[in-house]
Fold this sequence. Notes:
Order of helices and strands: EHEEHHEEE
Number of domains: 1
Number of strands: 6
Structural class: alpha+beta
Number of helices: 3
CATH architecture: 2-Layer Sandwich
Strand content: 25-35%
Distance between the termini: 9 Å
Amino acid sequence: MITVIVKFKLSEAITIQQAREIFLSTAPKYRGMPGLIRKYYFLDTDGITAGGIYLWESREDAGVLYTKEWKAFVYGKYGSDPELTYLDTPVVVDNVSNEIISNQ
């Protein structure tokens, strides 16, 4: 598994309520996406830094999303280029499903 942290800066601070509305407008496009296990949207306490934390089955699955077109979409929607950080994720503890998940 791989975790990708995507961060971008907003042109002006927004509230958590505004963030919720904006993020709900894009969330449906990620439902059922091949290889995507989970996505978390986030807004930093400064109201300016926002993004997503994605858990993927593989780096190849992640690479299907992060194209030039996707980066242009992020820029168009939020006004800045996304910064991506890739992290190997050998183990996940999921307390909702009561599982410990590990790919080999």
